[in-house]
C-alpha cells in the first residue's frame, strides 16, 4: 500500500487554498490524477517526490517511511525511490540521449540496456537531445526515470502530463508502452492527464481533485465499475449522435442511449453493448 496523507498551502489564481490528500493506493497499479487546471495535480506529485515541503503529512510506501512530520522524517528527493517525468521531458540539452538516460544512475548499469531496448532508443543514443521529436523526448525522459528506479524495492513512477504534447499516433503508442512497462516492471505509477479517455484506458484508479473555495481535496473515484468502452460525444445531429470511440468516430441513433435528453457535446460515456451510460466525472 502507498499511503499519501498531507496538507499543503498553495497560492491559487483565486486566493490561497489548502491541498489535502488522505489516500491509500494499491501498489503495482496505475493511478491517474485528474482535476481542473490549477487544482494542484503537479503539486501533489511534487510533494510525493519531496520537491515541495509540507508542514503536516505522512507518506509511506509499504513499510518505508518517506515523510512523517510528527517524527520529523523527510527523505530528500534523491533518497526517495522515485522516477519523475516532467511535461516537457526536462532533458539536459548539453548531453546526448545516452548520457541523459544514465545521468545520476551509474549503479544500475544492468538495467540500462533493457530499458533502451524497450523504449526503442538504440538508434538515437548518440543524438543531441535538441534534435529529438516530442515523442522521442518523452521516451528518453521515461527511460531516464526507469533506469533510476529499476532494482529499487517499492519504487514509484510519477508522470506529469507525459503525453500532452504528442500527436494522436505517438500518444496511443506511448500509452500502450506505459501500460506494458508498468506491468512488466511491477511499478506503482501515478500519471497526470487532462484526457479522461486516456485515464480510462490507462488506469486502475482515478484520483480526482475536488475544488472548494479554500480547500482542494484529492478523492478516489471508481470509474471501472462497469465493463464497457469509453466514448466522447463529438456532435449531436438530429436523431443521431457522433461519438469518438478509441480512435474512431461512430454514429449511433439517439434513442439507443439512456437519458439522451441530458446529452451534451464533450460528455464522456461508457458504451455497454446495447446501451450507453453517461459517466458523471464531476461529482
Ligand atoms: N510552491 C508553491 N507555493 C504556493 N503556491 C504554489 C506552489 N506551487 C504551485 N503553486 C500554485 O498552486 C496552484 C496549483 O498549481 P499546480 O501546478 O499544482 O496545478 P495543476 O493542477 O497541476 O495545474 P495545471 O493543470 O494547469 O498544470 C497554482 O495556482 C500555482 O500557482
What does this structure look like?
With 283 residues, the protein is of the alpha/beta class. It has 2 domains: 220 residues, P-loop containing nucleotide triphosphate hydrolases (Rossmann fold, 3-Layer(aba) Sandwich), CATH 3.40.50.300; 50 residues, OB fold (Dihydrolipoamide Acetyltransferase, E2P). The strands form 2 sheets. The protein has an 11-stranded mixed β-sheet, sandwiched between helices. A hairpin with a 2-residue loop joins strand 12 and strand 13. The longest helix is centred in the middle third of the chain and has 17 residues. The radius of gyration is 20 Å and the shape is globular. The relative contact order is 0.15. Adenosine-5'-triphosphate (ATP) binds next to strand 1 and helix 1. Keywords: ATP-binding, Nucleotide-binding. GO terms for molecular function: ATP binding; ATP hydrolysis activity.
Sheet-strand content, in percent, reads: 25-35%
Based on CA atoms alone, the radius of gyration comes out at 20 Å
CATH topology of the largest domain: Rossmann fold
- Chain-averaged pLDDT: 82
How widely separated are the two ends?
A: 26 Å
Give helix and strand order, one letter per element, not per position. EEEHEEEEHHHEHEHEEEEEEE
Number of helices: 6
Largest sheet: 11 strands, mixed
Uncertain runs are 279-283
The CATH homologous superfamily of the largest domain is termed P-loop containing nucleotide triphosphate hydrolases
Whole-number tally of structural domains:
2
Tell the overall outline: globular
Number of strands: 16
Q: Supply the helix-strand structural class.
A: alpha/beta
| Strands in their spatial order, largest beta sheet | 6-5-4-1-2-11-10-3-9-8-7
Query: What CATH architecture of the largest domain do you see?
Result: 3-Layer(aba) Sandwich
The distinct bound ligands, ions and cofactors come out as: adenosine-5'-triphosphate
Question: Would you state the CATH class of the largest domain?
Answer: Alpha Beta
The portion of residues assigned to helices is 10-25%
Domain ABC transporter: 1-236
Pfam family, one: ABC_tran
Keywords: ATP-binding, Nucleotide-binding
InterPro entries: AAA+_ATPase, ABC_transporter-like_ATP-bd, Molybdenum_import_ModC, P-loop_NTPase
Amino acid at each position: 500500500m502507498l499511503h499519501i496523507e498531507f496538507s499543503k498551502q498553495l497560492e491559487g489564481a483565486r486566493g490561497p487554498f489548502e491541498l489535502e490528500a488522505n489516500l491509500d493506493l494499491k501498489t503495482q497499479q496505475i493511478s491517474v490524477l485528474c482535476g481542473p487546471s490549477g487544482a494542484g495535480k503537479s503539486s501533489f506529485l511534487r510533494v510525493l517526490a519531496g520537491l515541495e515541503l509540507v508542514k503536516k503529512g505522512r507518506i509511506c510506501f509499504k513499510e518505508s517511511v518517506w515523510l512523517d512530520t510528527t517524527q520529523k522524517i523527510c527523505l530528500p528527493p534523491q533518497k526517495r525511490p522515485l522516477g519523475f517525468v516532467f511535461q516537457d521531458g526536462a532533458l539536459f540539452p548539453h548531453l546526448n540521449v545516452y548520457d541523459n538516460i544514465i545521468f545520476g544512475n551509474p549503479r544500475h548499469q544492468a538495467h540500462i540496456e533493457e530499458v533502451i531496448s524497450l523504449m526503442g532508443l538504440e538508434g538515437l543514443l548518440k543524438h543531441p537531445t535538441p534534435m529529438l521529436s516530442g515523442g522521442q523526448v518523452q521516451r528518453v525522459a521515461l527511460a531516464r526515470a526507469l533506469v533510476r528506479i529499476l532494482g529499487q524495492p517499492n519504487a514509484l513512477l510519477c508522470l506529469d502530463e507525459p503525453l500532452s504534447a504528442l500527436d494522436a499516433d505517438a500518444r496511443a503508442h506511448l500509452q500502450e508502452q506505459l501500460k506494458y512497462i508498468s506491468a512488466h516492471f511491477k511499478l506503482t505509477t501515478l500519471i497526470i492527464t487532462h484526457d479522461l479517455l486516456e485515464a480510462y484506458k490507462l488506469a486502475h484508479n482515478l484520483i480526482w481533485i475536488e475544488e472548494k473555495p479554500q480547500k482542494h481535496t484529492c478523492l478516489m473515484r471508481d470509474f471501472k465499475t462497469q465493463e464497457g468502452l469509453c466514448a466522447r460525444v463529438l456532435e449531436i445531429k438530429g436523431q443521431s449522435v457522433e461519438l469518438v470511440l478509441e480512435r474512431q468516430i461512430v454514429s449511433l441513433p439517439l434513442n439507443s442511449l439512456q437519458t439522451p435528453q441530458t446529452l451534451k457535446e464533450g460528455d464522456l460515456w461508457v458504451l455497454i453493448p446495447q446501451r450507453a451510460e453517461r459517466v458523471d466525472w464531476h461529482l
